[in-house]
């Protein structure tokens, strides 16, 4: 499974917006500059994320976009679904889709809903606030020494 570039960029853009304290309006051009996302793509994403209710746009002096709700209340799943639609690993679980050659004989198809739910649930547990925060340093435990091994400095 791999996210589309647009979904990936949406997560990056929303993380940048969240780092701006979420309530201070910021222009799409500034988000593009901060993230390295091309300007037209950033504008397209801002429009789509606003339509999905994740960003609020304001016009005029001091205008721009801001998060529609606190970063802790926006999940990675929310962002991906705003750009790509419902999270589904296969098309056969989408209503109205009948483009699988195995339809009618597939024994796994009834179970894909559970798999999709598990993936969406995992992504829903990751908040935008956690992505916008500075990464925590990771500690790597040194490998255990073997008997008779010398310590070299």
Can you put this structure into words, describing what you see?
This protein has a two-stranded antiparallel sheet with strand order 1-2. The N and C termini lie far apart (44 Å). Helix content is 41%, strand content 5%. It has helices at residues 5-19, 28-35, 39-51, 76-84, 112-124, 128-132, and strands spanning 55-58, 64-67. A hairpin with a 5-residue loop joins strand 1 (55-58) and strand 2 (64-67). With 153 residues, it is mostly helical.
Question: Key terms for this structure?
Answer:
153 residues; 41% helix; 6 helices; mainly alpha; two-stranded antiparallel ribbon; flat
* Terminus-to-terminus distance: 44 Å
Name the overall outline. Answer: flat
Largest sheet: 2 strands, antiparallel
Instruction: Give the integer mean of the pLDDT values.
Output: 85
- Tell me the series of helices and strands, N- to C-terminal: HHHEEHHH
Secondary-structure class: mainly alpha
What oligomeric arrangement do these chains adopt?
single chain
Report the sheet-strand fraction: 5-15%
* Rg (CA only): 21 Å
The largest sheet has its strands arranged as 1-2
Low-confidence stretches: none
Share of helical residues: 40-55%
Number of discrete helical segments: 6
